[in-house]
């Protein structure tokens, strides 16, 4: 009990000291825009010249955007066991860019500002004096160590966020971090940001005073011609019905942090982007369900909208078969003694007991949401 209490106290103190990070956004350089297309789901994408996408970031002025080797080469080093659970992979809208270009989502709703992943990945927001007015999480985190990434299927859900003034969102993310820097990937429902109520693939990075969601500014180097941050994921899982997952993997590879979704290498965060030890390795991995609401508004459902009860396998959201890339550069299941849970509103959301096996770590999480008053212990 003493060790657990010390671990939680350390977790809260460390992240409370991480400063506020404002979202950075930039317009796409029109000179690099080759063509704009619209998917069957109504999303608009610009086909951007691959070599021009990272040149605007000061830290990347000498970065040449070297191609990452094929997925088969990537998997031969870190392995890719795939999901063995009774689930199916979600699909993403089909995009096919001309040679030498990559897709960048442009159909965001109005303002570029968002309170989504860029703030969520800064854990200070969960524990400051106004935390219970804005954001909540239900998470499993590793104790500090040396990590070079993770792999994990995430069950995909599309809960009804209900009514309430924005910002209002719900999602599931996995964060890799070190000091004031971090990268994250998962899914999010954010009507103010995307202009719809669908579930989207979402990524973010943060580095000491600068942050970015998806590819709203230079930093993440898009590689895939067919899969891009911001795409709609479909179909979502259904309670007592078919379960769908998105398989996410972030690994330190050839010096950079590479993102793989399903069978596709989507792109990477160059190590030059980070001014901390994150350029070399991470010291923590966190799996979390997250929700946000405007001050005074009720909080929306998290995950499937159901808590991790006895029927969790058919009705609750899940992180499953989660493994970390340890100091030996091998994918391993985290030891139960090396993880702990954190829930900011226990009356509203829960984390089930994590279970570890050779296949990886697994736990259920979620909740129906609650009024602002209920979220305060």
Automatic annotation (TrEMBL):
<keyword id="KW-0732">Signal</keyword>
<feature type="region of interest" description="Disordered">
    <location>
        <begin position="58"/>
        <end position="92"/>
    </location>
</feature>
<dbReference type="InterPro" id="IPR004314">
    <property type="entry name" value="Neprosin"/>
</dbReference>
<feature type="signal peptide">
    <location>
        <begin position="1"/>
        <end position="23"/>
    </location>
</feature>
<feature type="domain" description="Neprosin PEP catalytic">
    <location>
        <begin position="128"/>
        <end position="371"/>
    </location>
</feature>
<dbReference type="InterPro" id="IPR053168">
    <property type="entry name" value="Glutamic_endopeptidase"/>
</dbReference>
<protein>
    <recommendedName>
        <fullName>Neprosin PEP catalytic domain-containing protein</fullName>
    </recommendedName>
</protein>
<dbReference type="Pfam" id="PF03080">
    <property type="entry name" value="Neprosin"/>
</dbReference>
